[in-house]
Design goal:
By secondary structure, this protein is mainly α. It has helices at about 20-45, 55-60, 65-80, 95-105, 105-120, 165-170, 175-180, 185-195; strands at about 125-130, 135-140, 155-160. The N and C termini lie close together (about 10 Å).
Length: about 200
């Protein structure tokens, strides 16, 4: 992934009523754009200039470069996993098999993911990722954290920084988290299993 704004596969109003156009305008249009701009400035003249965002996230030490690269990657994966409410179908193929093997059912995966997102203290992310030994794992990552730091492949994420939900849900993080499932495009998530890095 290059350090650039992703092209969204839906209109600004396309995620309503789960996420409003106002939230998308601020979260995608301003927050993500700021991370992209900051990362471009920070890597100039460093060993990270010209590197893929994933490589920066894997290798940069904690600090400004990692924080901005993490947020570019995290937000890109977050926004691109969405589709119009109710159009995301169900997991299929290998993803469905792994969910049933590692969690028992999609409902149990959702329950554990919800719990990780709702109980994360402060700002950060809840992640579903594929471990190096081929198992699905849910984790909580503070701030700009990403499972790539542990060589896991990120598949699905819930942003629980307050700016992700405060316009639409105020302080009701749990309501926001539970509604995000209406937006998940399981074909996109399943495709991430097959991505070659």
């Amino acid at each position: 992934m290059k350090n650039e704004m992703p092209l969204l596969p839906y209109a600004e109003q396309g995620l309503e009523p789960v996420l409003s156009a106002e939230t998308l305008s601020y979260h995608y249009g301003k927050h993500l754009q700021t991370y992209v701009t900051n990362l471009e400035k920070l890597v100039k003249g460093t060993e990270y200039e010209g590197k893929e965002v994933e490589e920066i996230v894997r290798t940069a030490p904690d600090g400004g470069i990692f924080n901005n690269a993490g947020q570019v990657l995290n937000h890109t994966l977050y926004f691109l996993q969405f589709t119009t409410p109710g159009q995301g179908k169900r997991p299929e193929g290998r993803l469905d098999e792994l969910i049933r093997r590692d969690f028992g059912s999609l409902d149990l995966l959702k329950q554990q993911m919800d719990d990780a997102a709702i109980t994360l203290f402060g700002s950060g992310w809840a992640w579903l990722s594929l471990t190096e030994d081929g198992r699905l794992q849910i984790s909580q990552e503070g701030n700009a954290g990403n499972p790539l730091r542990r060589n896991n492949r990120p598949l699905l994420c819930f942003d629980v920084w307050e700016h992700a939900y405060y316009v639409d849900y105020r302080n009701r993080r749990a309501d926001y988290v539970k509604k995000l499932w209406d937006l998940i495009d399981w074909q996109v998530v399943g495709g991430r299993l097959e991505d070659k890095e």
